[in-house]
Design goal:
- The complex is a heterodimer of chains A (about 1000) and B (about 450).
- Chain A is built from 32 helices and 32 strands.
- Chain A has about 1000 residues and is of the alpha+beta class.
- Chain A starts with a helix and ends with a strand.
- In chain B, strands 1, 4, 5, 6, 7, 8, 11, 12 and 13 form a nine-stranded mixed beta sheet that branches. Chain B has a two-stranded antiparallel sheet with strand order 2-3. Chain B has a two-stranded antiparallel sheet with strand order 9-10.
- In chain B, a hairpin with a 6-residue loop joins strand 2 and strand 3.
- Classes of the chains: A alpha+beta (about 1000), B alpha/beta (about 450).
- Chains A and B meet through strand 20, strand 22, helix 27, helix 30 and helix 31 of A and helix 6 and helix 7 of B.
Chain lengths: ~1000, ~450
Amino acid sequence: MTHWILFVLLLQISPEAPSIERLVVHPAQATLVGRRARLRPVVLGLGSDGRWLDLTQQAELIPSGAQVTVTGDGHVIPESDGEARVVVRAEGREASLEISVRDQSRAHPVDFERETLAILTRQGCNAGSCHGSPNGKGGFSLSLFAYDPAQDAVVLTRDAYARRTNVFDPEASLLLMKPTLGVTHVGGRRLEPGGLAFDILRRWIEEGTRPSPEAAPRLEGLRLEPGPQVVRYFPHAYQQLRAVALFEGGLETDVTDIVTYQSSDPGVAAVDRAGFVQAVAPGACAIMVRYLDQLESMHVTFVRDVEGFTWTEPETDHLVDRLIGERLKLLQVPPSPLCDDGTFLRRSSLDLTGLLPTPETTEWYFAAPAALRREQLIERLLASEEHARYWARRRADLLRLRSDNLKDAAAPFADWLLDTTRANRPFDDVVRELLTEDGPQSAFYETVPTPDAVTETTTQLFMGSRLACAKCHNHPYERWTQRDYYRIAAAFHEGVSHPRTGESMVPWASESVKAAGDVAQRRARFADWLTDSDNAFFAAVEANRIWAALFGRGLVEPIDDFRSSNPASVPALLDALAGELVRSGFDRRHLIRLITSSRTYQRSSHPVALNRSDRTLFSHQRARLLSAEQICDAVSRVTEEAHFEEVAQKIESVVTEREQSRASLRARQPEWIAEVRHRLERQVVPALSPWRASEVFRDENAFETAFAPESTVWSAGAEGWTEHPEWQDGQVHPLSLPPQSALYLTRTLALSEAHRLALALGSDDGLKVWVNEEQVLSRDVARGVQPDQDRVEVDFPAGESRLLIAIINRGGAAGFTFRLEAQAIDAELARLVRLEPTERTDADRAALDDWQRSEDPGWVRLEERLSALEAERSNRFETQKLLTDASGERARFLETFGQPKRESPCACERSNEPTLPQALQLLNGELVDRRVRRAGEVYAARENEALVEALYLTAFCRPPNAEERSVALRFLSGRARGEAIEDLVWALINTKEFLFQH
Amino acid sequence: MSQRSLTRRSFISIAAAGLAGAAWARPASWLRPNAQAKRVLVLLEQGGVSHIDTFDPKPGAPAEHRSPFGPITTKIPGVHFTELCQKTAQVADKLTLVRCMRQPTPGIGDSHPKGTQYLLSGEAPGGPVEMPDIGSVVASLLGSPCSYLPPSIMVPGNHEQAAMTRVGFLHPKYKVFKTGGRDLSDPKWSVPNLGLLAGIDERRFRDRQDLLSNLDVGLAGAATADVDGMQAAAAQAVDMLTNPLTRRAFDFETESEATRDRYGRGHRGQCYLLGRKLIEADVRFVTIDVREPLTKDTPGGSNMNWDHHDFIYSEGSTAIQGGGPGAGRWGIGTWPMMGSTDQAFSALIEDLDQRGLLEDTLVCFITEFGRTPKINDRKGRDHWTHAFTFLFAGAGVPGGQVVGSTDEEGGYITSPMSYTIEDYAATVYEKLGIDREQPILTPENRPIFLAHRGRPIPELF
């Protein structure tokens, strides 16, 4: 019985072992140079089922001559000079390997850098967690992964009283005693006596701890066999690797046994020190191989036949679906079906604009023909201002675009970024302009003032390389060396030298220091190199960012950490998308369109039975938490939509009012011209007293706080305040103010008759202005001081008036400037009013109209009101602001949900993981509470049935189902109405369906 | 189930946890047995407390630079504090004073923001990796025995330098939780988001929960780790909001009048008292970063930290007409400064001791640096990184001990030993039984050795 079951099981696992049709051996021919040369052949078999498998373990190697022998563990080693053949036999098939042997009569000393240090790296001695850490371990400090051979030589041969290496008694060397536990070693056993690694170290010591010969050929590369991509099937899910070092002059050396192996995902594949890779689970990953400063990786895929797997997807020539499909088919993971239309609407609106769709868009979408609506929606979203703003904002996060560091340069930089995004300018042009041209975008260099900062930021942003590692040592997981780091730095700044060697660095993309030219030329050359379509990184990084924005996960993840040890989950797709970006002339919208039109993007977030565990192959969409700004905006959409409808109505009515005002001003123009002429005849000059300054007031919330002078100065005057006769009008006066403090300044102004004057002011940071107890200006800003940042016109009465201003410092520098605008009537206006009506041209008439309106308080108020309403409408959403202006509870909310502070170019600065404080904000936070209360008011007039319908459509882009409708209606009818609406909206906001994009 | 299969199962689940978050995987041997401390209470007195005027008196200093506050005897025979520390002198038998603290990298930590970050993270800021706070590291490695409160809490954590807390490369859930609060002695004070909002009583909150559980069905099939994570966070938040123990942990009404008086009725006293309450609730890592608020009784005191650049001995505001670096503070001898500190700190030590909490709670009284032995021309003292004093108690720290000494003016260390901020950090980790020989890994797999430039202060063990 038991045997019978076992038999059935075996049948299921391997129904019939396929026969081997052909053998292939890597290499087919080789040269063994030197006595200690070794060769590890790798043997593959092609099965009758068309699948390759590794036969290295069971293959029999039979040398045909005396020039070589074969060791018990399958290595070919040289015996004497000449030509030899090794016959390879396995599974009844045969192949052969031609070998020539040289230099057997010469000594073959150990090469310090190419062997000794490689061994120390391979054994883990100089890893960051052992002797390669900044302080070493136990007083023994090596350079991380041997980036500094000269220093390592000193440490190994001279330090510690030269006890680490004992030339006279090599085996008494600490270097051998410690890792073999001959004496205590905190790091444990690291070396097997008699093994190859031990033997190389011992020989090196015995031969006199010599440095590498000066003339040794340079290592140019590594080749991994059997190839860059390997697919193996269970139960034969393993592969022996072979590593070949490619030296200058064409010399190839088998280094399989002295290189260092690492698996990029130990959950998928394990690799041992001999280069044998074995599957842990089905999946794909990279095996990274390091030798000296070279790094190469092999992509391995392990497949287990999945029972019940069938492929039912339609044939497609869509780039994305084809390449994803190939991968899914190979790994036997079925994709999920497409999502429904409502889900697609919500998903694509959030991805492309950051916002839930407006009721109008939802209505339009469902009214569009079903077969076309998804495509048409994408076009509509791509063309929207919201799309440009949201995507520009995401970029602004990475460019450290902040008002507190860039001051007045921030807004123009943000505008430049928005303009380039709105116009969908070719991405290579945009980056070249950012790095090389003078303009608002030059502020980029202010955010990265040092050579280090500009090097690390530029490479991470546009090449996805975390070069910071290479600042102090060669990059541990990438080819970047310390030299590369400083060469890139030299492309941005003059006078950069290598910190270890002192060598003056040749700028990246320049031929020599001499030919490098000035900084502008260096930067231009670097930008050309960077954005060249041959640059493997540039297009791929941008394509990956776009992909990640649409799936919540990059093909390479983390999205700005490109390295051979972190391969793309679907490498062919990343290559294809990068190629598509280049081919389209770096048209980012083209790529978005391409991806969103794929079935892959449009799949449901509900997994099916066989793709539930897939996280990296995009067999289905995955629910992801909305970003901080998206949640904030989604909450306002669902709680305040009605309020914004009101705003739209108000805008309409102000526009009407303005038209009426325009007409009546036209009618009154002759009187106004007469009044201006009258003014021209007698001009009024005010008498100003010197400024007096108060003490400094401090509070955590300095701007909001009304300190004493705001009330006392009107009655008590400025008694005891410090007089500043030296403060001339029109000049900038720096102030020394601590963070979150306010300073008050006052003066009097005397006029012989009532008159309208314009005050022009500038401040660092906030500013408040009163005239005769009436506040005329309030600006809660963070900025550097500039003349004429604010202008306010005030009707002064005859006699003495008092002026009070408050300067509020948020932090950093402080200062202010003040002047009265020239009282003399503008010469141009004088000319215009003196003209007879018949002499005025159309342009003159238009100029007069403008002048008159600008002097009319009613008109000015209307204009202000209109722009405030428009700002409220267009700038109401956090996802739409390039510069964050949040304070108070809104700022706390956004910070809690992981809004980045914009201090780093790393996408990782934004965190999107759920946390306890987020749950507290949602369940019990002030912002949600305030908005939910507002919803209680604005929805009060709606009829229950319609309200529930509308709320579901706004929140989820779908109507409620029967059960949800009845639960909601029952809840609404059983309670006090306002509170019941609040509770319902609160509950909807707290559902996962609301908080997640799916 | 056999012993064998049990072992195998636990092995699989450990492996699975490791794969789910490879960067957070910890070796099982992380903890050392017999750790002396179960919790840590840090009193971060920010601004740079003048050691000369408090715990390291220098009566022999030249008259023009001498503190006006004379030495007094303490419970430790032969050891003196200044008269500003009367009450602390009475609990000195429970303390170890380390008078030989210094900053090895003064160029880095000699400013308040960087200096504070230095104290919070235990490592000089500006290294290749921005280090998380010690509290966040501890939270990530040890979690917290108190299920209804966050593992690392700062009280109140709303002053300018409290912005220097960092979670660095750790998961944001280990970020320090700041209670907020301008004045904890105000009966209206509550932790934002932690007590139910006005208008939402418990019945209504439960109503909402019921409604939510009926409606929250949409993503059931598409749950990801994040969806589950949010569900778990919400469940924990509901527990926090409705658990009577949460309210109790922040409710001063549960304390006797005598206790509240003993700590001092102002903001500082109540902050220290809250520190004791949170430790009592078994929160792993508590940091008190307090400064007295501006009130009508403390004119000019808009920023009362210890940064006494001007008029350090003023009996009120230290502000200089026309502004100066010392503006906003009060003199060191006043109630809002050393008065309330002496009161609160001594009460805390006494209280923890009486409750048996000193057994396994490490208490650290720390500050960025000391102040200059010489009085400057604005009658203040400036930053001094060459010698200053930290106080330690509990968790096996010997009582009645003085470690290290400084010269006649308090300027330079004269003892053979001297300790750094990194040594302080190493001490905290060591007391908690955290093995610093094992690196923690950043998401990029860079190994980080905790307080790797420091070593535990031997006299505290």
